């Protein structure tokens, strides 16, 4: 049955109105309130009604994806915020100060998110644009810097906590258009966020239409990064604006460019509803191609069977599995992170269980400062154990697909934890 309820948003301010709220224990409610004052919390009625299994909340992956858990903070951080919230003389300003102190401890800008990769034009930074890899530029539309629900593990969480100094978005004049026009090496534009599918068709069109205009022939592929298939598939099915959105997608395809819908999907449960199936079919019928990507995250999808089932289901529904990412070292990374060894094991086990059509997915990959570093395997040469690594993307295109080695370390969770093996250097270290 198609989900046809009106959108209802739940935040800390009205969470008591959620019909299932009293299923939560007091400890869970407290955890949500304490952590939700530091990291962004928002969930909508599609997620709560269609996706979360309230009979098994403690272990439900979609509940974990959207609701905070006490253990996402260190006990010191947790107690500090909890004390502030319970102190009768705390003002909202006091709580905000403490929240900001704790946020600063959570590595809010991994891999230099705010400043790195921002190109300049006439000696000025181009607002809301990132250009890291030669062929691909990212646009962060100012109206798309929020999501239909927030993921607890999101690495872009500082975008959503209302602090303007942490935000990254396009300017009103859309300076990015001029930059794209001048940079003929760019073939791909990725519209990202937040979730660009928070925008209505008219606003999204303001970002897409200029890419179809004269002088933009070098832009061959328009990508939209979105989690709307999981969080609000009605966007493409029965929202008042759904037909206009699909018409805009079709317009891109009819103009002779490729529209790549980059769906963020963490678990097969997200693509089990009738509304999600219909949304996928409707997007595909415009001629757009849906590719999928997800980080691997403890408590949500650290299980090879979840991945192989998800990839099989994606292929059956006509989507192309694209990337498996290693969760970035930001936010509650101690809670969600897992070792590179374990991530590789899950990838290999899962990919051995699918047919070639799903083996298009690459990973586990770390989006780090030098580029996307993929863990290809573990080897042992002359008694020394090592990770085999590969750059899937690099600032220096000459380094793409040139394998290299790091000393094996069963605790390593990120590139920064690794050292070169066999007396070599990492290729991106000159
Ligand atoms: C992943 C990524 C891209 C796109 O890389 P592809 O391998 O072409 O998908 C572009 N820019 C940034 C900053 C990225 O992280
Ligand atoms: S949908 Fe994407 S940007 Fe939005 S909270 Fe989730 S991971 Fe972050």
Question: What would you say about this model in short?
Answer:
It contains 13 helices and 15 strands.
Task: Note the main attributes of this structure.
430 residues; alpha/beta; 11-stranded mixed β-sheet; 13 helices; globular; binds pyridoxal-5'-phosphate; binds iron/sulfur cluster
Radius of gyration computed on alpha carbons: 22 Å
Query: Which regions are unreliable across 5 or more consecutive residues at pLDDT < 50?
Result: none
The helix tally amounts to 13
Small-molecule binders here are: pyridoxal-5'-phosphate, iron/sulfur cluster
Largest sheet properties: 11 strands, mixed
- Intertermini distance: 57 Å
Mean pLDDT, to the nearest integer, reads 94
Query: What's the helix-strand series?
Result: EHEHHHHEEEEHEHEHHEHEHEHHEEEE
Describe the global form. globular
Structure characterization notes:
The strands form three sheets. The chain has an eleven-stranded mixed beta sheet with strand order 5-6-7-8-9-10-11-12-13-14-15. It has a two-stranded antiparallel ribbon with strand order 1-2. A two-stranded antiparallel sheet has the order 3-4. β7, α7 and β8 form a beta-alpha-beta unit. The longest helix is centred in the first third of the chain and has 13 residues. Among the domains are: 96 residues, no CATH class; 135 residues, no CATH class. Helix content is 30%, strand content 19%. It is globular, with a radius of gyration of 22 Å. The model has no long low-confidence stretch (mean pLDDT 94). α7 packs parallel to α9. The chain is α/β, with parallel strands linked by helices. The relative contact order is 0.09. The protein contains 13 helices and 15 strands. The site of pyridoxal-5'-phosphate (PLP) has 9 residues, from β5, β6 and β14. It comes from Halobacteriovorax marinus. Keywords: 4Fe-4S, Iron, Iron-sulfur, Metal-binding, Pyridoxal phosphate, S-adenosyl-L-methionine. GO terms for molecular function: 4 iron, 4 sulfur cluster binding; catalytic activity; metal ion binding. This is Lysine 2,3-aminomutase. Belongs to the radical SAM superfamily. KamA family.
């Amino acid at each position: 049955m198609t989900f046809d309820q009106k959108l209802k948003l739940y935040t800390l301010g009205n969470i008591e109105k959620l019909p299932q709220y009293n299923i939560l224990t007091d400890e869970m409610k407290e955890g949500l309130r304490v952590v939700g004052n530091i990291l962004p919390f928002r969930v909508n009625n599609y997620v709560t009604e269609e996706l979360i299994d309230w009979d098994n909340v403690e272990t439900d992956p979609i509940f974990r994806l959207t609701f905070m858990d006490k253990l996402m903070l260190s006990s010191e951080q947790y107690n500090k915020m909890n004390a502030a919230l319970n102190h009768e003389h705390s003002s909202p300003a006091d709580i905000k100060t403490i929240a900001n102190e704790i946020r600063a401890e959570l590595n809010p800008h991994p891999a230099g998110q705010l400043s790195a990769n921002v190109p300049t034009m006439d000696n000025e930074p181009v607002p809301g644009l990132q250009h890291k890899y030669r062929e691909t530029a990212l646009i962060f539309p100012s109206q798309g810097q929020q999501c239909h629900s927030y993921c607890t593990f999101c690495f872009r969480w500082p975008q959503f906590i209302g602090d303007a100094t942490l935000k990254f978005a396009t300017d009103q004049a859309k300076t990015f258009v001029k930059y794209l026009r001048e940079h003929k090496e760019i073939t791909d534009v990725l519209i990202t966020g937040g979730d660009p599918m928070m925008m209505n068709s008219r606003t999204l069109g303001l970002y897409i239409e200029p890419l179809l205009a004269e002088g933009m022939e070098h832009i061959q592929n328009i990508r939209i990064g979105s989690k709307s298939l999981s969080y609000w598939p009605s966007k493409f099915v029965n929202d008042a604006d759904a037909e206009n959105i699909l018409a805009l997608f079709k317009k891109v395809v009819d103009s002779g460019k490729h529209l790549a819908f980059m769906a963020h999907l963490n678990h097969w449960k997200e693509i089990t509803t009738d509304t999600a199936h219909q949304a996928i079919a409707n997007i595909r019928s415009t001629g757009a191609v849906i590719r999928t990507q997800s980080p691997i995250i403890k408590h949500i999808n650290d299980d090879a069977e979840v991945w192989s089932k998800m990839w099989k289901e994606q292929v059956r529904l006509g989507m192309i599995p694209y990337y498996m990412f290693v969760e970035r070292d930001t936010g509650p990374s101690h809670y969600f992170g897992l070792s590179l060894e374990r991530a590789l094991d899950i990838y290999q086990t899962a990919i051995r269980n699918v047919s070639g059509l799903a083996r298009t997915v690459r990973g586990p990959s770390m989006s780090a400062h030098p580029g996307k570093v993929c863990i290809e395997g573990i080897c042992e040469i002359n008694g020394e154990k090592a990770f085999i690594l590969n750059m899937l993307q690099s600032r220096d295109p000459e380094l793409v697909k040139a394998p290299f080695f790091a000393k094996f370390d069963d605790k390593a969770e990120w590139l920064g934890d690794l050292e070169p093996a066999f007396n070599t250097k990492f290729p991106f270290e000159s």
